[in-house]
Structure formats: structure tokens, C-alpha cells
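Dear support,

I submitted the protein below through the web form. The confirmation email said the job was done, but the results page showed an empty box. After a refresh the structure appeared. I'm attaching both so you can tell me whether what I see now is the final result or a partial one.
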Amino acid sequence: MKERIYTIPINEAFDQDSECPLCICERKLENDALEYTLGPAMMEPDSRIETNRTGFCNLHFTKLYNLQQNRLPLALVIETHMLEQINAIEEIYKKHENALAKESEKGVLSSALDAVKGKKSVSSKLLEELLHKLTHLESTCAVCDRMNGQMDKLIDNTLYLYSKEPEFRAKFHAGKGFCLKHVRMLLEKAPKELNSGMLAAFLKGLMPLELEELKRVQGDVSHFVKMFDYRNQGADWKNSRDAVPRSIEKLSGPCDLKR
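What the results page shows now:
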């Protein structure tokens, strides 16, 4: 198998015994993105502009906080991010402040007449702009953006290996399938990366494998549940003791579950 620098981590992940080798890759990309955010990105103006604008999702704020003993790098990022968001929110409010004061002095009749005329109130405009700003902010995250771009390329490279390397195809089909999140990503990308014949072979190999492995994990969960029946006291747990966390990761992708 021909190794290229961007295929080495993929091959290493597929060599491991896991419920989803692409989850292994995603966890590494996430850890790299977190460390980059509090390391090299601190000194890069373009990166700071981006983190000031987007901030982080709740999950990655938590992981960034838990990552280091030294909180200063994260505090510096938060300081400028908060300043930018305060300025943006204040700008929206100030734009409507005077008109809002006048509207607050209107009587019920005057307000009703404006509504009949189809005139949008200042309150409505302000609410609309504030909600748009805050909703958009909740949906942005510098770590997610970095990860998603790299994960997109990693899926491309996985399909490249599948199309070019028979040895990798054998490894692909010998595994335990994938989590549903990464199945979806593979299916979205496959028509763009594989010719029609290869796409048909890919689906013919992937879907029976995935269904078989999903049924295996579901069977482990069922056995786990049965072991709580008093009639099965002392019976063999088989491979079911960690069935719950494995099933969650099989359904949703990488998770930080306590084992």
C-alpha cells in the first residue's frame, strides 16, 4: 500500500480494533484543534480575528477550559471575544435606542393603529436583530470550523484510498463498520469521489457490513438489559458490559463518556 502523509493516520486508525475508525481520526483532529487554539493560534492575528468573531460552542468551551492548568491563554481569547460581542450587541441596541424610548411612550391606541397599517414596531425590529445575532453566535465555533474542514478532507482521503488501494478496501470491509454520523459523511461524499462502478461496489460492501455491526451492538445492549432479570443472575455477561457506551458512540459518533 502506498503511504502518503495524509493517508498514514487513516491507515493507523483502520488498523485498530474499534467500532468506528473514523471516530479515532475525529478525536485526534479535535485534540489538535483544541491545542492549536490555545497555542499557535494565540499569536496569529487571523486566528484571533476568527475566535473574536465566532467564539466556541458550549462543548468546546468546556474542553478548552479543562485542557490546561494555565488558564491565561483561554482568558486572553475570551477577553477579546467578549469585547467584540459586547460591542456588536451594544451597536444593535444603540441604533434603536431613541426610537424605542419614543415608542415606549405611545398609547395603546397609537400602537394599535401602527399595527393595522402594517408598520413594524421598533421593538419588533430590535428583537429581530438581537435574536439573529445571538442565534448566529450560538451556531459558530472556531474549533468546530477547523475540525469540520479537516474532517471533510479526511473523508475524501478515505474514499481515495478505497478507490486506489485494494489492500485498504480489504481492511475497510474487515472492520466493525462505522458510527452513523460517519456513515452519513461517507455516503454524502462517495458519489463525488467514486465512479459509478466503484460506488456500486462501495455500497454493496458497506451497507451489509454496517447493518451486521449495528445488529451486533444492538444484540449486546439487549443482552445487557436481560442480565438485570433475576432469572439470569450468575449468567455470562458475554460482550455486553460496555454495550451502552458503545451503542451511544455507534449511533452518534465520538463522545466523552465515563466508562
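Response: this is the final, complete result; the empty box was a page-load delay. The radius of gyration is 26 Å.
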